[in-house]
Here is the input.
Amino acid sequence: MTPDDVQKKIGFDDATRARLEAYVALLTKWQARINLVAPATLPEVWSRHVLDSAQLLSHMDGRPGPVLDLGSGAGFPGLVLAVLGRDDVILVEADRRKAAFLQEAARVTETKVRIEACRIEALRPIRAGIVTARALATVSELLHYARPFTDESTLYLFLKGERADDELTTARERWNMTVDKAPSLSDVRGVILRLEGVTDV
Here is the structure.
């Protein structure tokens, strides 16, 4: 998939595309030094990472933030969402090298974003309107991590794969929630989990 393909699917302008291209170029450069993404996925970065992240924007429905992105890694999905226009994204990444990459990516793309280089447990108190995560932990674990920073009105958007249903079954042993599932635009095996009204069982 090319930048053209992603631009048509998501609908961003040419200036945003240029910023995303600068981000991908920086990612490719840094990948030679630190492992930001699985090496096998680098040739498919626009579909596997950029589109996969960008598709969450339409599921936010203009909901208020801040957007708390747990385990941001190389910036997926949080930094992509910030480049696309969310100006209330908080990236949480404990790995100092990855956090340094996020700082540089934000600078290169001229993107407003808050970066917290710490473990989730050490994050200073906030109340997140939206929580996002990708490839960090199971649904139940993600809800546990997010619990101190959320309430019943928080919207959770998780990018998941083939084990999504199994993870939801396990999560329901501990959490009450309303679940909506949408197919992924980037992977036929993928799914977007939209969770609302999350409370303890």
About this structure: The radius of gyration is 16 Å.
